[in-house]
Structure formats: structure tokens, C-alpha cells
């Protein structure tokens, strides 16, 4: 049976030559695992639910920035508006008959 001590007083697992060789292998293994994990993270498709939540949060946040929000700009009186007007106003219509009709309206209706 071989002895577990190569040099005087140094056990097998603490031998300098073997530990250096093993430590380099472990470092290389850790590096390869890190590269594979990073590549897998980059190649996995994004979660659709997470994308939907993030887009909803972005919409809400964008609503409350004064530079992009008409609501906030109006509240802070940073913008104003002209009163509305009609570009093609309707024609005047004759007044409608009101009930009960007045004496004058009854006279006009009866032809007097």
C-alpha cells in the first residue's frame, strides 16, 4: 500500500504540486461555469408577464413627468389652451313652439 506522504511531514492532499494543479483546474471550471451561466441568461427569452408589468409601470411613470404630461402641465399652469370654437357653426333655426302656447302664438297658428 502506497504511503500518503510524498515528502517528509507533508500529507498527500497538501502537496504543493498537486494543489496548484487542482486549484488551476477549479478556477478554470468556475470560469467556464460563469461563462455558460452568462450565455444562458442572455439567451433566455424575457418573461412576458414581467414585460407587461414593466411597460405598465413605465406608462404610469411617464404620465406624471411634467415635460410629457398634459395633466400635470395644466395643473401646474405650465400650459394653457384657447377656448373651443366651431369651425362650421350650424345655421340659425327658428324657435320651437313652447307649450302651452302664448296668446300671440295661438293667434299666429290660427291665421289671425
What features would you describe in this structure?
The chain is mainly alpha-helical. About 50% of the residues lie in helices and about 5% in strands. The chain contains four helices and two strands. The termini are far apart.
Helix/strand/pairing class, anyone? mainly alpha
Shape: rod-shaped
The total of beta strands comes to 2
Number of helices: 4
Could you tell me the mean pLDDT? 79
- First and last CA, distance: 141 Å
Quick structural overview:
The protein is mostly helical.
Q: What order do the helices and strands come in, and which of them pair?
A:
Layout: E1 5-7, E2 10-11, H1 16-43, H2 48-63, H3 70-75, H4 103-110
Antiparallel strand pairs: 1-2
Amino acid at each position: 500500500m502506497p504511503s500518503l506522504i510524498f515528502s517528509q511531514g507533508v500529507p498527500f492532499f497538501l502537496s504543493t504540486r498537486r494543489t496548484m494543479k487542482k486549484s488551476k483546474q477549479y478556477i478554470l471550471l468556475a470560469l467556464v461555469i460563469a461563462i455558460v451561466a452568462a450565455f444562458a441568461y442572455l439567451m433566455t427569452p424575457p418573461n412576458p408577464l414581467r414585460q407587461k408589468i414593466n411597460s405598465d409601470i413605465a406608462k404610469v411613470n411617464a404620465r406624471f413627468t411634467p415635460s410629457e404630461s398634459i395633466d400635470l402641465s395644466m395643473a401646474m399652469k405650465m400650459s394653457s389652451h384657447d377656448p373651443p370654437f366651431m369651425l362650421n357653426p350650424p345655421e340659425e333655426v327658428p324657435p320651437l313652439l313652447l307649450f302651452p302656447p302664448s296668446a300671440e302664438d295661438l293667434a299666429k297658428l290660427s291665421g289671425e
